[in-house]
Amino acid sequence: MKKNNTKLMCISGIFSALVFVVTAYLHIPTYNGYVHCGDGLIFLAACLMPMPYSIVIGATGAMLADLLTGFAIWAPGSMIIKGLLTLLFTTKSTKIITKRNLVMLLPAALISTVGYYLYEVLITGSFTASLSGIPASLIQALVSSILFVVAGLAMDKYNVKKKILED
């Protein structure tokens, strides 16, 4: 069991780093932040890893991206929102791409969009000014969902989930 915990911790570190790099450096700047596809990797991690590990992956990868790219004000919100997103996906199947995980892409988009809207309201104090970030959040959810499905199908083809979870 100890070997498996060490393996899961190492994979978590790699996933956190991937989320950070994809979020921080493969993005399109917007007026109040950026649009990225790092959520797709968070969704993958949530389907591959046990829940405590996936929460840490989502929270730390997103937080580090905000902290190290000049958007530190968003880091607390990102930690909470991205950690919550991981709770939607299941690891109970032998596959990543399942009907349940595909259906959960919609609530994930809503949680992320509404979460960042409310966080921006908290930061700016304006309900109307914060509305302008919603289209970018929806685009980000769409792009991340596409990455998740494409990568998940490829990983399912090669039984990556089984290989990660075996001792």
SSE map:
Layout: H1 2-25, E1 27-30, E2 33-36, H2 38-48, H3 51-68, H4 75-86, H5 99-103, H6 105-124, H7 134-157, H8 160-165
Antiparallel strand pairs: 1-2
Helix pairs in contact: 1-2, 1-3, 2-3, 2-7, 3-4, 4-6, 6-7
Sketch the topology as an H/E string, one letter per element.
Answer: HEEHHHHHHH
- Using the CA coordinates, give the radius of gyration: 16 Å
Global shape:
globular
**How many strands in all?**
2
Overall pLDDT confidence? 94
- CATH uppermost class: Mainly Alpha
Low-confidence stretches: none
- DSSP helical segment count: 8
- End-to-end C-alpha gap: 8 Å
Q: Strand percentage, roughly?
A: under 5%
Return the CATH architecture: Orthogonal Bundle
What is the count of distinct domains? 1
Give the biggest sheet: 2 strands, antiparallel
Q: What is the spatial order of strands in the main beta sheet?
A: 1-2
What percentage of residues falls in helices of 4 or more residues?
A: over 70%
Instruction: Write down the CATH topology.
Output: Arp2/3 complex 21 kDa subunit ARPC3
- From the helix content, strand content and strand pairing, which structural class follows? mainly alpha
What does this molecule look like?
This protein has 8 helices and 2 strands; from the N terminus they run αββααααααα. The chain has 167 residues and is mostly helical. It has a single domain, classed as Orthogonal Bundle (Arp2/3 complex 21 kDa subunit ARPC3). The chain has a two-stranded antiparallel sheet with strand order 1-2.
